[in-house]
Amino acid sequence: MEPMLNCDSSLLDFLDRALVERKRQQLYRERQSLSSPQGAIIVRGGTRLINFSSNDYLGLAKHPALIEAASTAAAHAGVGSGASHLVVGHHDYHHQLEMALAKRTGRDAALLFSSGFSANLGVISALMNRHDEVFEDRLNHASLIDGAKLSGAKLTRFRHQDLAHLAQCLERSSARKKLIVVDSVYSMDGDMAPLKELAALAKEHQSWLMVDDAHGFGWMGKTGAGITEQLNLTQADVPILMGTLGKALGTYGAFIAGSQALIDYLVQFARPYIYSTAMPPLVAAATLASLQILDSEPWRRAKLIALVDQFRLLALEQGLPLLTSSTPIQPMLTGSAECALFIAKRMQQAGYLTVAIRPPTVPEGASRLRITLTAAHTFEQVSDLVATLARVWAESREVGEQDGF
Ligand SMILES: *Cc1c(COP(=O)(O)O)cnc(C)c1O
Fold first, then answer.
1. Cα–Cα distance between 136 and 129 in angstroms, integer?
2. How far is CA 290 from CA 131, 230, 351, 403, in A?
3. Does residue 6 have a pLDDT over 80?
4. Are 32 and 45 a contacting pair, CB within 8 Å?
5. What is the CA(348)–ligand 1 centre distance, in A?
6. Mind listing the pLDDT tens digit for each residue in 19-38?
7. Do residues 251 and 225 lie in contact, with contact meaning Cβ atoms separated by under 8 Å?
8. Model's pTM, two decimal places?
9. What backbone torsions phi and psi does residue 15 show, to the nearest 5 degrees?
10. Count of CB atoms within 10 A of residue 173's CB?
11. H-only helix segments in 205-280
12. Is the pLDDT of residue 1 over 50?
């Protein structure tokens, strides 16, 4: 009895100290639950808010066709998949979706994962080992960094978007296998990776290239196939392509697309794939409906792009500190975490959700509001947003002067 108690109390002690420290640094995060569907207007913590913080770029998360597809599939296939893909969880809907994703991305084959995080862990750890080296942009998504760590390979992080630095790192390497990994669109900055140049560099240095298109797939490219379609990059240029389904496609899960051999290999060796329950078949069915909407409602992509242009034009006119981004991710740099929190709070009081992003998600001193636009917003909502941001930004300058942030 006694040792158990000691053990338990020291765990609580540890947790308590870590949480107090987190609060002291103003980095403590809290969740609030939605009581509405995801969308341009949400109800959160009992308040109605105009939402500029989701990744539901095409406004598909509550599209009637997806709801219909999910309900029909639930009636046919039930809810849970019941097992991993290799045991007995692989359903016709999964198979159809994999075929459709391969076709859409112009790849030989595709493989579904239950999340983007597990796809990234699975691919990198299956391909690389301790004799190898993984080269990652400093601002890559956490799951890509963790995938490299899990693989045991040497992890080299190059300066953000710095091809010369990457080339130096590649030259210095004597690793057996080399893998360059980048985000297509950086999730907290909104800027795009120079993929053409990266593909050339990868070839020059006999390195493999993996692109995480979480924030490009669905809205970028002529048919929404993502950044590789937009830049006309083939399977030979980008042999390992990852996309997620929980962002522009409005559902959940992720996929890897590439050669048939890559997919066959991952089925054998990607542990997060092998040892995880398959996504519910109804999610695959709803995602098939999303892909159809990419074709039947191309106005969603066009409108999203028009809203991004409108937002930037108005915000720059008001002198707001935007980062350089031509994507639906439009961060406004505030510097200190206090300033970001101040603005986010005032925006919320004015009826807008524009979430503050602080370290460790972004570097120290680079806190920001991460504003995201979706095809579900109206032009009026965007111009009202900018007017409110301008007012609150001016207020934050005054308050910041007094309070020192
Ligand atoms: C969201 C995201 C992921 C993780 O995908 P989930 O399906 O949410 O687990 C991976 N990479 C990037 C760049 C992301 O933005």
1. 15
2. 41, 19, 30, 48
3. no
4. yes
5. 26
6. 999 999 878 888 999 999 99
7. no
8. 0.96
9. -60, -45
10. 16
11. 227-230, 260-269, 271-274
12. no
Provide the edge-to-edge strand list for the sheet that holds 41-44.
41-44, 47-51, 352-353
Atom of ligand 1 nearest to the CA of 140: 13
Catalytically annotated residues: 187, 215, 247
**φ, ψ for residue 158, nearest 5 deg:** -95, 160
Q: Could you tell me if the CB of 369 is within 6 A of ligand 1?
A: no
Would you say the CB of residue 214 lies under 6 angstroms from ligand 1?
Answer: yes
Q: What is the DSSP letter of 235?
A: T
Cα(113) to ligand 1 centroid in Å equals 12
DSSP state of 63: -
Report whether residue 287 contacts ligand 1, using a CB cutoff of 6 Å: no
Q: How far apart are CA 64 and CA 319, in angstroms?
A: 39
Exposure string for 340-354, b = 16+ CB within 10 A, e = fewer: bbbbbebbbebebbb
Please indicate whether residue 117, judged by its CB atom, sits closer than 6 Å to ligand 1.
yes
- The alpha carbon of 146 and the centre of ligand 1 are apart by a number of angstroms equal to 12
Q: Are 289 and 249 in contact (CB under 8 A)?
A: no
Q: Whose CA is nearest to atom 4 of ligand 1?
A: 116
Structure tokens at 35: 């009581």
Cβ count within 10 A of residue 94: 24
d(CA 372, CA 381): 13
pLDDT in tens, 251-294: 999 999 999 999 999 999 999 999 999 999 999 999 999 999 99
Say yes or no: CB of residue 215 within 6 Å of ligand 1: yes
